[in-house]
Design goal:
This protein has helices at 47-54, 80-85, 103-113, 122-132, 149-162, 179-196, 207-210, 231-236, 241-254, and strands at residues 3-14, 21-32, 36-40, 62-67, 70-71, 86-89, 167-171, 199-204, 216-221, 224-230. It is an alpha/beta fold. It has a domain at 3-93 and 166-241: P-loop containing nucleotide triphosphate hydrolases (Rossmann fold, 3-Layer(aba) Sandwich). The longest helix has 18 residues, at 179-196. The termini are far apart.
Length: 255
Amino acid sequence: MTALLDVRDLRVTFGPRRRPFVAVGGVSLTVGANETLGLVGESGSGKTTVARSIVGLVRPLSGSVSYDGRELPYGTRRGGELQRAIQMVFQDPRSSLNPRMTVAAIIGEAWRTHPVAAPTDRSEALEQLLADVGLDAGVAGQRASQLSGGQCQRVSLARALAVKPRLLVCDEAVSALDVSVQAQILRLLDDLRQRHNLSMLFISHDLGVVHQIADRIAVMRRGVLVEEGPAGEVLGSPQHEYTQSLLDAALELNA
Protein backbone atom coordinates (compact mmCIF):
# COMPACT_ATOMS: atom_id res chain seq x y z
CA MET A 1 0.00 0.00 0.00
CA THR A 2 1.34 3.43 -0.98
CA ALA A 3 1.05 5.93 1.88
CA LEU A 4 -0.65 9.19 1.00
CA LEU A 5 -0.13 10.40 4.58
CA ASP A 6 2.92 9.30 6.55
CA VAL A 7 3.36 10.43 10.16
CA ARG A 8 6.69 9.47 11.74
CA ASP A 9 7.57 9.60 15.45
CA LEU A 10 5.38 12.64 16.07
CA ARG A 11 5.91 14.30 19.44
CA VAL A 12 3.91 17.26 20.75
CA THR A 13 4.28 18.91 24.14
CA PHE A 14 2.53 21.79 25.87
CA GLY A 15 3.49 23.96 28.80
CA PRO A 16 6.87 25.02 30.22
CA ARG A 17 10.05 23.50 28.84
CA ARG A 18 11.23 22.26 32.21
CA ARG A 19 8.06 20.29 32.94
CA PRO A 20 6.14 19.95 29.67
CA PHE A 21 2.98 17.94 29.26
CA VAL A 22 3.52 15.27 26.62
CA ALA A 23 0.33 15.23 24.56
CA VAL A 24 1.73 13.00 21.80
CA GLY A 25 4.70 10.80 22.63
CA GLY A 26 6.11 9.41 19.40
CA VAL A 27 3.19 8.42 17.15
CA SER A 28 3.72 6.87 13.72
CA LEU A 29 0.88 6.06 11.34
CA THR A 30 0.01 5.95 7.65
CA VAL A 31 -3.11 6.44 5.55
CA GLY A 32 -3.11 4.86 2.12
CA ALA A 33 -4.73 6.08 -1.06
CA ASN A 34 -8.53 5.64 -0.91
CA GLU A 35 -8.26 4.23 2.63
CA THR A 36 -9.96 5.18 5.88
CA LEU A 37 -7.88 4.86 9.04
CA GLY A 38 -9.84 5.07 12.27
CA LEU A 39 -7.89 6.67 15.13
CA VAL A 40 -9.58 5.77 18.39
CA GLY A 41 -9.04 6.74 22.03
CA GLU A 42 -10.75 8.30 24.99
CA SER A 43 -10.84 12.05 25.59
CA GLY A 44 -7.33 13.32 26.35
CA SER A 45 -5.55 10.49 24.56
CA GLY A 46 -3.90 12.90 22.10
CA LYS A 47 -5.78 11.97 18.95
CA THR A 48 -7.05 15.51 18.26
CA THR A 49 -3.54 16.86 18.76
CA VAL A 50 -2.32 14.41 16.11
CA ALA A 51 -5.05 15.65 13.77
CA ARG A 52 -4.20 19.30 14.34
CA SER A 53 -0.53 18.59 13.75
CA ILE A 54 -1.35 16.94 10.44
CA VAL A 55 -3.31 19.94 9.16
CA GLY A 56 -0.71 22.40 10.47
CA LEU A 57 -2.64 23.93 13.40
CA VAL A 58 -0.24 22.59 16.05
CA ARG A 59 3.55 22.73 15.84
CA PRO A 60 5.14 19.38 16.79
CA LEU A 61 8.23 19.24 18.97
CA SER A 62 9.76 16.61 16.69
CA GLY A 63 8.91 14.01 14.10
CA SER A 64 7.54 14.50 10.61
CA VAL A 65 4.28 14.62 8.67
CA SER A 66 4.56 13.79 4.97
CA TYR A 67 1.91 14.00 2.29
CA ASP A 68 2.38 12.12 -0.98
CA GLY A 69 6.10 11.79 -0.29
CA ARG A 70 6.64 15.46 0.65
CA GLU A 71 7.36 16.50 4.22
CA LEU A 72 4.93 19.17 5.35
CA PRO A 73 6.12 22.36 7.03
CA TYR A 74 4.16 23.88 9.88
CA GLY A 75 1.15 26.15 9.34
CA THR A 76 1.10 28.90 6.73
CA ARG A 77 4.48 27.89 5.31
CA ARG A 78 2.63 25.21 3.39
CA GLY A 79 1.89 26.19 -0.17
CA GLY A 80 -1.65 26.55 -1.45
CA GLU A 81 -1.65 23.09 -3.03
CA LEU A 82 -0.71 21.35 0.22
CA GLN A 83 -3.16 23.40 2.28
CA ARG A 84 -5.90 22.50 -0.16
CA ALA A 85 -5.04 18.79 -0.35
CA ILE A 86 -5.72 18.11 3.34
CA GLN A 87 -9.00 19.38 4.75
CA MET A 88 -10.34 19.02 8.29
CA VAL A 89 -13.93 18.42 9.38
CA PHE A 90 -14.42 19.48 12.99
CA GLN A 91 -16.42 18.01 15.85
CA ASP A 92 -19.05 20.72 16.35
CA PRO A 93 -20.58 21.61 12.99
CA ARG A 94 -22.29 24.71 14.38
CA SER A 95 -19.16 26.30 15.83
CA SER A 96 -17.12 25.56 12.71
CA LEU A 97 -19.41 27.68 10.52
CA ASN A 98 -20.07 31.41 10.74
CA PRO A 99 -23.74 31.52 11.81
CA ARG A 100 -24.33 34.83 10.01
CA MET A 101 -23.08 33.66 6.62
CA THR A 102 -25.22 31.93 4.04
CA VAL A 103 -24.22 28.52 2.78
CA ALA A 104 -23.36 30.05 -0.61
CA ALA A 105 -21.05 32.57 1.09
CA ILE A 106 -19.37 29.84 3.16
CA ILE A 107 -18.55 27.83 0.04
CA GLY A 108 -17.57 30.99 -1.83
CA GLU A 109 -15.09 31.85 0.90
CA ALA A 110 -13.39 28.48 0.40
CA TRP A 111 -13.04 29.20 -3.31
CA ARG A 112 -11.60 32.66 -2.61
CA THR A 113 -9.03 31.13 -0.26
CA HIS A 114 -8.07 28.52 -2.87
CA PRO A 115 -8.77 30.17 -6.26
CA VAL A 116 -7.12 27.33 -8.17
CA ALA A 117 -10.06 25.13 -7.13
CA ALA A 118 -12.74 27.69 -8.01
CA PRO A 119 -15.00 26.59 -10.89
CA THR A 120 -15.92 28.78 -13.82
CA ASP A 121 -19.64 28.41 -13.15
CA ARG A 122 -19.92 28.75 -9.39
CA SER A 123 -23.71 28.51 -9.30
CA GLU A 124 -23.72 25.16 -11.03
CA ALA A 125 -20.78 23.92 -8.96
CA LEU A 126 -22.46 25.00 -5.71
CA GLU A 127 -25.63 23.16 -6.65
CA GLN A 128 -23.60 20.02 -7.43
CA LEU A 129 -21.68 20.24 -4.16
CA LEU A 130 -24.89 20.49 -2.16
CA ALA A 131 -26.35 17.56 -4.06
CA ASP A 132 -23.19 15.55 -3.31
CA VAL A 133 -23.75 15.95 0.43
CA GLY A 134 -27.50 15.39 0.26
CA LEU A 135 -28.75 18.97 0.51
CA ASP A 136 -31.31 20.77 -1.65
CA ALA A 137 -30.17 23.69 -3.76
CA GLY A 138 -32.46 25.99 -1.74
CA VAL A 139 -30.18 25.60 1.29
CA ALA A 140 -27.63 27.85 -0.46
CA GLY A 141 -29.52 30.98 0.57
CA GLN A 142 -29.95 30.00 4.21
CA ARG A 143 -27.70 31.13 7.03
CA ALA A 144 -25.81 28.52 9.02
CA SER A 145 -27.78 29.50 12.13
CA GLN A 146 -30.99 28.35 10.41
CA LEU A 147 -29.74 24.81 9.81
CA SER A 148 -29.88 21.67 11.93
CA GLY A 149 -26.72 20.05 13.28
CA GLY A 150 -26.80 17.40 10.58
CA GLN A 151 -27.28 19.99 7.85
CA CYS A 152 -24.38 22.04 9.24
CA GLN A 153 -22.08 19.01 9.11
CA ARG A 154 -23.13 18.38 5.51
CA VAL A 155 -22.25 22.01 4.72
CA SER A 156 -18.88 21.51 6.42
CA LEU A 157 -18.28 18.54 4.16
CA ALA A 158 -19.32 20.54 1.10
CA ARG A 159 -16.91 23.31 2.09
CA ALA A 160 -14.09 20.78 2.40
CA LEU A 161 -14.92 19.15 -0.94
CA ALA A 162 -15.13 22.53 -2.67
CA VAL A 163 -11.34 22.81 -2.79
CA LYS A 164 -10.87 19.27 -4.16
CA PRO A 165 -8.84 17.66 -1.37
CA ARG A 166 -7.37 14.18 -1.42
CA LEU A 167 -7.40 13.63 2.35
CA LEU A 168 -10.11 14.42 4.89
CA VAL A 169 -9.24 14.58 8.57
CA CYS A 170 -12.51 14.06 10.46
CA ASP A 171 -12.14 14.89 14.14
CA GLU A 172 -15.12 13.44 16.06
CA ALA A 173 -17.21 14.51 13.07
CA VAL A 174 -20.36 12.70 14.22
CA SER A 175 -20.06 12.77 18.02
CA ALA A 176 -22.17 15.94 18.39
CA LEU A 177 -25.03 14.49 16.34
CA ASP A 178 -28.03 12.34 17.22
CA VAL A 179 -27.54 8.60 16.66
CA SER A 180 -29.84 8.49 13.61
CA VAL A 181 -28.04 11.48 12.05
CA GLN A 182 -24.67 9.90 12.88
CA ALA A 183 -25.56 6.90 10.74
CA GLN A 184 -26.56 9.16 7.83
CA ILE A 185 -23.29 11.13 7.97
CA LEU A 186 -21.21 7.94 8.23
CA ARG A 187 -22.90 6.53 5.11
CA LEU A 188 -22.38 9.86 3.37
CA LEU A 189 -18.67 9.93 4.27
CA ASP A 190 -18.13 6.43 2.92
CA ASP A 191 -20.02 7.30 -0.26
CA LEU A 192 -18.01 10.50 -0.74
CA ARG A 193 -14.76 8.64 -0.23
CA GLN A 194 -15.61 6.26 -3.04
CA ARG A 195 -17.03 8.84 -5.47
CA HIS A 196 -14.25 11.41 -4.96
CA ASN A 197 -11.34 8.96 -4.47
CA LEU A 198 -10.64 10.34 -1.02
CA SER A 199 -8.49 9.08 1.81
CA MET A 200 -9.69 9.67 5.34
CA LEU A 201 -8.34 9.85 8.88
CA PHE A 202 -11.45 9.34 11.00
CA ILE A 203 -11.01 10.19 14.68
CA SER A 204 -13.42 9.04 17.36
CA HIS A 205 -13.63 7.90 20.98
CA ASP A 206 -16.18 5.27 19.96
CA LEU A 207 -15.10 1.95 18.43
CA GLY A 208 -18.75 1.25 17.66
CA VAL A 209 -18.76 4.23 15.30
CA VAL A 210 -15.34 3.59 13.80
CA HIS A 211 -16.09 0.00 12.83
CA GLN A 212 -18.79 1.28 10.45
CA ILE A 213 -16.34 3.19 8.30
CA ALA A 214 -12.68 2.26 8.90
CA ASP A 215 -10.51 -0.11 6.85
CA ARG A 216 -7.83 -0.08 9.54
CA ILE A 217 -7.92 1.01 13.18
CA ALA A 218 -5.21 2.56 15.35
CA VAL A 219 -5.85 2.78 19.09
CA MET A 220 -4.32 5.63 21.07
CA ARG A 221 -3.87 5.93 24.84
CA ARG A 222 -2.03 8.62 26.81
CA GLY A 223 -0.25 9.98 23.77
CA VAL A 224 0.95 6.72 22.22
CA LEU A 225 -0.43 4.04 19.92
CA VAL A 226 -1.11 0.78 21.72
CA GLU A 227 -2.57 -1.25 18.84
CA GLU A 228 -3.05 -1.02 15.09
CA GLY A 229 -4.32 -3.33 12.40
CA PRO A 230 -7.12 -4.19 9.98
CA ALA A 231 -10.49 -3.25 11.41
CA GLY A 232 -11.74 -6.83 11.48
CA GLU A 233 -8.70 -8.02 13.45
CA VAL A 234 -8.68 -5.18 15.97
CA LEU A 235 -12.40 -5.51 16.62
CA GLY A 236 -12.55 -9.30 16.44
CA SER A 237 -9.45 -10.12 18.42
CA PRO A 238 -8.03 -7.09 20.27
CA GLN A 239 -4.50 -7.59 21.53
CA HIS A 240 -4.33 -4.82 24.10
CA GLU A 241 -6.47 -4.62 27.24
CA TYR A 242 -7.25 -0.97 26.58
CA THR A 243 -8.68 -1.82 23.15
CA GLN A 244 -10.79 -4.50 24.81
CA SER A 245 -12.09 -1.97 27.33
CA LEU A 246 -13.11 0.40 24.51
CA LEU A 247 -14.82 -2.47 22.72
CA ASP A 248 -16.67 -3.52 25.89
CA ALA A 249 -17.87 0.07 26.39
CA ALA A 250 -19.16 0.21 22.80
CA LEU A 251 -20.99 -3.11 23.24
CA GLU A 252 -22.59 -1.89 26.49
CA LEU A 253 -23.83 1.29 24.82
CA ASN A 254 -25.36 -0.70 21.98
CA ALA A 255 -26.91 -3.36 24.22
